[in-house]
Specification:
- The protein has an eight-stranded parallel beta barrel with strand order 4-5-6-7-8-9-10-12, surrounded by four helices. Strands 21, 35, 39, 41, 43 and 45 form a six-stranded antiparallel beta sheet that branches.
- With 845 residues, the chain is α+β, with helices and mostly antiparallel strands.
- It has four domains: 3-352, TIM Barrel (Alpha-Beta Barrel), CATH 3.20.20.80; 422-449 and 600-725, Jelly Rolls; 459-595, Jelly Rolls; 734-844, Jelly Rolls.
- A hairpin with a 2-residue loop joins strand 14 and strand 15.
- Helix 2 (55-67) runs parallel beside helix 4 (97-106) and helix 7 (270-282) runs parallel beside helix 8.
- The chain is 18% helix and 30% strand.
- The chain starts with a helix and ends with a strand.
Amino acid sequence: MRGDVILLIVSCLAIGILARTSFGATVTYDQRALVIDGKRRVLISGSIHYPRSTPEMWADLIQKSKDGGLDVIETYVFWNIHEPVRNQYNFEGRNDLVKFVKLVAEAGLYVHLRIGPYVCAEWNYGGFPLWLHFMPGIEFRTDNGPFKAEMQRFTTKIVGMMKDEKLYASQGGPIILSQIENEYGNIDSSYGAAGKTYMKWAANMAISLDTGVPWVMCQQRDAPDPIINTCNGFYCDQFTPNSKTKPMMWTENWSGWFLSFGGRVPYRPVEDLAFAVARFYQRGGTFQNYYMYHGGTNFGRTTGGPFISTSYDYDAPIDEYGLIRQPKWGQLKELHKAIKLCESALVATAPTITSLGQNLEAAVYKTGSICAAFLANVGTQSDANVTFNGNSYFVPAWSVSILPDCKSVVLNTAKINSVTEIPRFTLQSLNIDADSPETLGSQWSWINEPVGISRKDAFSKPGLLEQINTTADKSDYLWYSISTDIKSDEPLLKDESHTVLHVESLGHALHAFINGKLAGSGTGSSNNAKVSVKIPVTLQPGKNTIDLLSLTVGLQNYGAFFDKVGAGITGPVKLEGSNGASIDLSSQQWTYQVGLKGEELGLSTGSSSGWVSQPTLPVKQPLIWYKTKFDAPAGSSPVALDFTGMGKGEAWVNGQSIGRYWPTNIAPGSGCTDSCNYRGSYSSNKCLKNCGKPSQSLYHVPRSWLQASGNTLVLFEEIGGNPSEIQIATRQTESLCSYISESHPSPVDMWNSDSEKARKSGPMLLLECPSPSQVISSIKFASFGTPRGTCGSFKHSKCNSSHAHSIVQKACLGSRSCSISVSTDVFGNPCRGVLKSLAVEASCT
């Protein structure tokens, strides 16, 4: 590297370190960037939602974010968890927003606080508390007095808390940005003129709170000054703000996509994600946020949708369990470093963009002696050699090369230099306890949930009631019960073999019981929550009891008037025969029960005295509460429960809900690929896996919720399963891989080398076990030459150094990390005149 480039690197890194260790007293913006203490900044942000992990995980998640090159942590504020009852607040445990913000500050990072208070976020009811729905005269997210009053009251509450703790940058704290509303521009036309009035009111209300930091509105093209309008999407390089006085900001770069029960698992290749990020900064952006950087878990009943899964992994750089996802985390870390090398040029001026040929583009930031450039190939088919500044550069299809000095390429987004990890879960039965002759998990006890009406608070009304207005979402469950007399000469009895119960429901699922026995079930989907079933039934002369258990799977969280989308059995409900005979029960007197008897008794804690364990464990039967004890696995690896063998329900560990489980909801059998071509525009259905399998079978149990022994597991099973098949899993790394070529040095080596000798020694292959307690225990594969394949399936070729395996073993075994120079000086030259690479696959224990 040239000396002036090295000086540029050192100075840029020094500026970054200083900026992160103290918070500015003033935050403003201009047409290029956010301005902190008078200095324009290029900022890289990532979303971590505090209630989707535990307080015990927060510091580690934040540190891994910082280590990955982030400057800012973004989070929504979730109204419904903080104010479940009007004027009764909860800011404890996973809801401790102040603690979370302070931990971010302690790590030396900034905060973007997205108050909303509508959040979407695949979160139940979009983050609104259900009591809001019942306020007289209220209409959500429009020019409506009752709604605006409540929105302002809560927003003021949150701003006041932050001010009291001196957490705004204007007070010396970490919060440099706040957001009001959320993606309202996507749906505001549905509200007409009242929507525009409301949007302007929301902006003025936020500004009046005098936080001393800028406010943003995402996806709001007409956001009024001084609110900054920002972009959300898979790509935002073509976005321009609505004023020449505002910077180009990207508040949601979707690192993957959410998972729905019944859906295939989406993933986004890191090459495409890195391409999108580099393109954004190439074309003038200075603030970008990953949604999500850590997705986490939808504990309890917090999922929205409906049908959003309990896992909110999002294919994020830090996975659901809090572990680094490689190569995504590492590749983005290198990208962030490359972008930061360009910071002084990026903030100084706007880019000059020129064409280098079809689908080829150069963007140059130049002011005085400072120059940085990005070379982009936006074509999806052909790699290219381009001439720029008199030099030739190879730019693969759908990639961006970054040149901090307008000469030297330090990173190309399509070339992965990061470690790759293959994760695995080690399973063992809950029934295994090696230290005790009595196996803890084998001692299951149970309580049958009564079919139909069993609580004293049941009530009767004519006709069929909409579910959300009836339950106020205090439970997923609502019983609809009716008894009807069938005369012996009723035509339906004569047509008994063809009699069906016809039920129409707004969703999301239902189970039908005839005279206490399960007759059939129906379920909607994420694409259509409505349920329509015709269930064969057997009736008897005289009294017949029909009990319908209707249930929700997370409430609607997105769209215009989403709060008015109903659920439950709204009819018709009919008994029908093929001979034309029919009895319409819809308008008759029905008896209702909100929730389950077990919920009233508090069975989820496992403390009730009604549990039995004899004579035999009932399996494959509906409506049963199960309980057992189990020991936590040894070590510190993340823990999950594998619910294969169960049907659908909810689970609690030591009284805390780990969420809804539904392993019988199987993804479609086609449309998946294990190797997705990253070239070309990404969409949420482009790269999918897990076809023909349960959408989710593993459910995260935070380590902090576990004690060494005697943990209580409680399940409510709706449709029937065998709890003895449940297994406990620990998250491990099966393989750790790296693949580095002679001519593709890692930016880390180039930027952080302390000596000219180190810089000239060539690229370095780096391996590091994910846990500080682990060491590299075996080298599964090592080849220097022209190895083929990918992590987990590397293969030798004819060009292969015979010494590679022993050299790597000597350098790495027994250490947590190791580095090896990728050069013929180390491995010899197995084939002259050929570009050679080093591929290694290792395991850690």
